[in-house]
Amino acid sequence: MTDPVDREWLSPTRAWRLTECAASVSPVVNTAIALTSDAPNAGTVAHRAVQLWIKSDGYRDGDVRGRLSDAINTVLAETGGRPVVGEWTSTRARLLARASQLAERLHQGSRVISEEELRDPRRALLGTPDIVVIGQDGAIVIDLKTPTARDASIPPWIDFQLTIYAHLVQHEYGVLPRRAEVFRLNKGLMPIGVSQSSVAAALDLVEYARQADRSVATPSLETCRYCRRRIDCESHWDAAPAWTSSDCAEGAIERIERAANGVTAILLRSEVGTHWVSGVPTELVTASIGDHLRLVRLQRSKSTVDLVGFKWSRVSALSVLRDA
Predict the structure, then answer these.
(1) Residue in 272, 282, 273 with CA at minimum distance from that of residue 312
(2) Helices 196-210 and 12-20, interaxial angle, to 10°?
(3) Dist. CA 172–CA 51, nearest whole Å
(4) What are the residues whose beta carbons fall under 8 Å from the beta carbon of 51, sequence distance 6 or more?
């Protein structure tokens, strides 16, 4: 194993991405820009509310739902009354509806830890599990997911993430969680099997990936979606046009239409055709006709026979490659 001093610290998410694509941790050349906002989002508010609820022992109260509602109101007051971005109405309703179920799980431990960073210096792994429950029968690690899930399946990256969290819990507290669970607000608690062998296999995979050739990229939509090198990665841009649900677009700017409401539509031309990207914040559009633009994490809009459209989303980003 390489000297820990020379190793890059990896979170569970970055560790998974590394195992899927060694090039994902290579240096970034072109920095993507996005519309920054200090407005709270639904997921952040929900996580913070659960953290306060746990730290105040609200889950041990006779009225767990009421105490969680109080925690939510405290978080909203901390934001200064700013509107919450995202599906906040449904997120709040689901969180309160699941309060009793989550409280019942937390009662299985004599100690409940929320949002505390754990580190394994030897392996250069670190992470902050949402909830760790420690009791006489062992430990449970729980990951809160606020986005709506269409089915009961758990994506491989979440399974891997929780397996690494299980290792970090064992490293910190000396006990391997007997169970890991995803707490989806629209599905409830969803278990993931954890064993000493599954943890060892995940750790071996990370060690193998650290030694892989980082000049070789293996793009896929899930791996690339939030990759820091996405804008730079030519392998990604070569593969993306073939993805049926691709969320990115690139090309030379043919037309720019700025609206009075502060958003802009851009027509791009590339080797695969033309694409309109609408709803781009005008303040981010500093490019000119002929410049090469790359945009990621877009929403696909309705397509006509010969034209695919995209819409800017709150997680979208863009970069101008003036020398492309």
Answers:
(1) 282
(2) 60
(3) 20
(4) 114, 115
Neighbours of 191 (CB within 10 A): 11
Beta strands 179-184 and 138-145: pairing type? parallel
Beta bridge partners of 258: 264
pTM score = 0.84
pLDDT in tens, 113-159: 999 999 999 999 999 999 999 998 889 999 999 877 677 788 899 99
22 Cβ partners below 8 Å, 6+ apart? 209, 212, 213, 214, 216, 217, 218
- The pLDDT tens digits for 9-49 are 999 999 999 999 998 877 777 677 766 556 788 899 999 99
Per DSSP, the three-state class of 317 is strand
Cα gap 318→58, rounded to integer Å? 43
Can you tell me the distance from the alpha carbon of 126 to that of 89, in angstroms, rounded to the nearest whole number?
A: 33
Interhelix angle for 64-78 vs 42-55, to 10°?
Answer: 120
